[in-house]
Design a protein that fits this description.
The complex is a heterodimer of chains A (about 475) and B (about 100). Chain A has 18 helices and six strands. By secondary structure, chain A is of the alpha/beta class. Chain A folds into three domains: about 80 residues; about 190 residues, no CATH class; about 180 residues, TPP-binding domain (Rossmann fold, 3-Layer(aba) Sandwich). A six-stranded parallel β-sheet of chain A has the order 3-2-1-4-5-6. In chain A, helix 4 packs parallel to helix 8, helix 8 packs antiparallel against helix 9 and helix 14 runs parallel beside helix 18. Chain B is mainly α and about 100 residues long. Chain B has a domain of about 60 residues. Chain B contains four helices and no strands. The chains are: A alpha/beta (about 475), B mainly alpha (about 100).
Chain lengths: ~475, ~100
Amino acid sequence: MRDIFIQGAYLAASALFILSLKGLSSPATARRGIMLAEIGMVLAVVGTLVNHEIVRYDLIILGLVVGSLIGAPMAIWMPMTAVPQRTAISHMFGALAATLVGISEYYRLTHGGHLSHTEMTALGFEVMFGSLTVTGSFMAFAKLQELVGGAPITYPFQNLLNITMFVATVGLFLYLIVNPENSQAFYLMLGLGALIGVLIVLPIGGADMPVVISLLNSYAGLASAATGFVLQNNVLIIAGSLDGASGFILSILMSKAMNRSFSNVLFGAFGSSETAAAALKAAQEKTVRSISPEDAAIQLAYASSVIIVPGYGMAVAQAQHQVRELTELVEKRGGRVKYAIHPVAGRMPGHMNVLLAEANVPYDQLYDMDEINPEFDRTDVALVIGANDVVNPAARNTPGSPIYGMPILNVDHAKSIIVMKRSMAPGFAGIENELFYDPKTSMLFGHAKDSLQKLINEVKQAP
Amino acid sequence: MTSNTVIELYVFMLAAFVGYQIISRVPPLLHTPLMSATNAISAISLVGSLVAAGADYSRVSTILGVIAVISATTNAVGGFMITDRMLRMFKREDHAPKEKR
């Protein structure tokens, strides 16, 4: 009877999880979807608590209370700009839970139990993906939170070392499948996995974060699914594979948006100093036109169509509220304003959408790259705020460029372009942006938030 | 390989397929909430942690289990709450409150 209740709860939870993700296909149904997933989670936990193997509840209650006390305040008070960091650290927590359950199971089965080859295979996947994701996500978190420098850290023979360690870990895994009882090999594999997680994220720079976070999301899901195989629990397998699938899809989308393969992100040093230097030298012969906030405001005030292109620079400057205020002023004067969102703008998939939604920008003004690109030709002013590589026409025009082939926003097709930027420093890829030297482009230098405030004041005063 | 494992592989394959189909339809607009939602859902590893923490296997299992319960609960509670907080912010034009000037 009890078993039927437990299995029923798990079955219902699995169905609710799938329905909840279906809800996410539209903002109108998304919140109801999340509610379904919450019900599913509660059902699964209640179902587990009546399991006859559980004999003491004090520690469980302690764990649930402490976890809630950590999770809830983070969710309530964390600023929206910190969403990428929070996501990275939550991948770490998820993978940590899976890894610890794996170690605990291994310990139990090697101390008085029997560990079959099949169970060892599942356990191996669990702790290998798990340990790699724990440390990798922590490194990603540290980089996003700026606890360590965001710049890629490289050293000689990096790829060779990574590949060697990877091969060694897989070798240990295969050895363990044959000899499951060798606990030294098990803990060595665990340690190597953790080390690989660190080494694989070290050489990754800020703009590659969307790919890395998606990839770690996928690994965390796979670790959860492997836990399901170890514990012979279908709801874990289902939830884990949903998470794994979502991470996988997002990694593919992000890599496509950067025109790079997984292996290129993980093993490739981007924008080597030589090409960057050559591009910089060539650029010095061209001139840029800078513009005053007054003149830029006049352009915006009399434009009938404006497209705003936000990038990571807007997030850093926390300027999304000023952007929205400027939008409303232009709209009040009769101009139409749209936002063009590149898939890899920001530090994680969908980052810009969340920030703009937080600033009360209605989501029907936010357009994906494919939707908005044909519209630049009919646009009076394109306003680029803290975006760089994603608007660089070199991706279309310069076959030798490191970003050649990457899909970009066709900002250069607009009738005039205003680029807000702190300085002429190149973007993440370390390459010059042809857009800045376009005769139609004017540069508005300064901190994005201050410049936007000036623009707002000037547009207000425009006759 | 036991027949149980084979059934589990089927479950895994089908769930991954369903997941792929459903998640492909999530618009880029909602990719950040998607990631935090799937993350919260995968905190279902809580069910494994609960057994490790509450079943009297050994002291090692209990300690690891309690830490795992804390991690998974952090994700489940925090993940669902922040996803909902994000989704609350997404509004259509006619519903967006206008700033008073």
